[in-house]
Design brief:
By secondary structure, this protein is mainly alpha-helical. The protein contains six helices and no strands.
């Protein structure tokens, strides 16, 4: 009786290397922890990846690349430098750009 129970139950397959790499990238992007238990089972990892793919990534406070390039062009044209703290805050960069436009 116990042998039929073990035969009826599907065995957990280990996750593929490709799944693990993708899951780790998603975890970094969404700033969440990838549970160890989930990494051990292919199906569980697939479900975790599906759930994380639907999530919106955490918004960064850093300025966008377009902001930085525009600010650097303004700074060159006005012969100034962009303050270092502007590179750490999207809002500060936006204020600096607004106050230094032509």
């Amino acid at each position: 009786m116990s042998t039929t129970k073990t035969l009826d139950r599907p065995q957990a397959l280990t996750a593929t290397e490709k799944q693990l790499i993708f899951a780790r990238k998603l975890a970094l992007k969404n700033q969440v922890i990838l549970p160890w238990v989930v990494q051990q089972d292919r199906r569980a990892l697939s479900q975790w990846i599906d759930a994380q793919s639907r999530m919106m990534p955490v918004a960064s406070d850093y300025p966008t690349s377009k902001q930085v390039s525009f600010a650097e062009r303004l700074a060159r044209a006005k012969r100034r430098s962009v303050p270092d703290e502007c590179f750490r805050s999207r809002e500060l960069m936006s204020r600096w750009i607004d106050s230094n436009r032509f």
